Amino acid sequence: MTKLENISMIKEANIYFDGKVNSRTIFLQDGSKQTLGVMQPGEYTFDTNEAEIMEMMSGELEIRLPGESEFKKLNTPESFNVPANSSFDLKIKTVTDYCCSYITD
């Protein structure tokens, strides 16, 4: 889905890693939550509370998911799932555009 309609958004930005990662939280018509953001080059570890689907729309990056020992290159656009209460590592090589969808029971 490249266009989102009938959404509401929190105006305040989510800013992480000294401003190198930022996003905006949106709510879809069905009440589900997503964040839309941009990551600058660097290495990051993200912790999750809820299960997530991460859609990497553009950029060059590598990922190491929970339970994996090696990084793997993603070919954007590409998505991956992350379980709740876990963490994952990213090596961002170029500016990367992403969408994170939160999965609730």
TrEMBL record:
The species this protein was found in: Sulfurimonas lithotrophica
UniProt xrefs under InterPro entries: Ppnp, RmlC-like_jellyroll, RmlC_Cupin_sf
Protein name per its UniProtKB record: Pyrimidine/purine nucleoside phosphorylase
Keyword Lipid biosynthesis among record annotations: no
Catalytic activity annotation: inosine + phosphate = alpha-D-ribose 1-phosphate + hypoxanthine; uridine + phosphate = alpha-D-ribose 1-phosphate + uracil; xanthosine + phosphate = alpha-D-ribose 1-phosphate + xanthine; a purine D-ribonucleoside + phosphate = a purine nucleobase + alpha-D-ribose 1-phosphate
Pfam families attached to this UniProt entry: Ppnp
Protein family (similarity comment): Belongs to the nucleoside phosphorylase PpnP family.
Name of the gene this protein is made from: ppnP
Phylogenetic lineage: Bacteria, Pseudomonadati, Campylobacterota, Epsilonproteobacteria, Campylobacterales
Keyword tags: Glycosyltransferase, Transferase
Uppermost EC category: transferase
E.C. designation(s): 2.4.2.1, 2.4.2.2
GO molecular function, one term: uridine phosphorylase activity
One cellular component (GO) term of this entry: cytosol
Superkingdom of source: Bacteria
Function noted in UniProt: Catalyzes the phosphorolysis of diverse nucleosides, yielding D-ribose 1-phosphate and the respective free bases. Can use uridine, adenosine, guanosine, cytidine, thymidine, inosine and xanthosine as substrates. Also catalyzes the reverse reactions.
